[in-house]
Design brief:
By secondary structure, the chain is an alpha/beta fold. The protein has eleven helices and nine strands. The protein folds into two domains: about 200 residues, 2-enoyl-CoA Hydratase, Chain A, domain 1 (Alpha-Beta Complex); about 45 residues.
């Protein structure tokens, strides 16, 4: 079992193989300070190799997911010059990379402000659930800035055409529009419905073998960037290892014996 780090900007609750991570700076609509980014990265590192942690659910306290980067951090970095800005920005990009490649299923629960960095974090989740009144947007250009670390993940998620429109207009849009463009998978009308949808998604996730999920996620991410022949050779090797591995043996035996596999909760 992983030893979770102590956090000041996050609330952590591990239950039934699901780690609930709540961004907890409600006074700033959960703006992502450098401390929050560092704590999120530490949590991801702590559970990376722990297959008893099956899913990560990321939400926000106080009715908001995240309003993006912390302006106070940016002001503090100004006194240190351009290098500090570069390091601050790149740290958030590293968080997005690490979230994208987390072996667990990453689920985001999106309410209120989902802006800038919060938008980027939604783009690297495996399953995204949203309240219909959530407000999405990339406000960076309206502030004279650019979505430097976020942009590649936005393009991967919703395509270049939509990403160009959103980034170059700083337009805001709601949960229903987010679903239409493929940013989120489910949109619900109230908190109760959102909680019920999360329970439904988690029930499906917990029917899947954690090792198989981790390898499948890696395969899917590679499929977007790797030539198909090379990837299919690698996938064949992974498949053969899965078949003779503990999960493959248990899964096929459970099917033959008409029972649930050991990992199914």
């Amino acid at each position: 079992m992983s030893r979770l780090p102590l956090c000041e900007t996050l609330l952590l609750e591990l239950h039934n193989g699901v780690l609930h991570i709540t961004l907890n700076r409600p006074q700033s609509r959960n703006a992502m300070s450098l401390q929050m980014v560092s704590e999120l990265r530490a949590v991801l590192a702590a559970v990376r190799d722990d297959r008893t942690v099956r899913a990560l659910v990321i939400g926000g306290a106080g009715g908001h997911f995240s309003a993006g980067g912390d302006i106070k951090d940016m002001a503090d970095a100004r006194a240190q010059g351009a290098t500090a800005y570069r390091e601050l920005n790149r740290a958030f990009g590293a968080l997005l990379e690490e979230t994208q490649h987390a072996p667990q299923v990453v689920i985001t629960v999106l309410q209120g402000a989902v802006l800038g960095g919060g938008f980027g974090l939604a783009c690297v989740s495996d399953v995204a659930l949203a309240d219909h009144q959530a407000q999405f947007g990339l406000p960076e250009t309206s502030l004279g800035l650019l979505p430097a670390q976020i942009a590649p993940f936005v393009v991967q998620r919703i395509g270049l055409t939509q990403a160009r429109r959103l980034a170059l207009t700083a337009a805001r849009f709601d949960g229903a529009q987010a679903r239409r463009m493929g940013l989120v998978h489910f949109v619900e009308q109230d908190p109760q419905a959102l909680a019920e949808r999360l329970d439904e998604v988690l029930a499906h996730v917990l029917c899947c073998a954690p090792g198989a999920n981790a390898a499948t996620k890696q395969l899917l991410l590679k499929s977007a960037v790797q030539p198909s022949g090379e990837l299919l050779d690698e996938a064949a090797q992974w498949f053969s290892e899965a078949v003779v591995g503990a999960e493959g043996v248990e899964g096929t035996m459970a099917f033959v014996q008409k029972r649930k596999p050991g990992w199914a909760l």
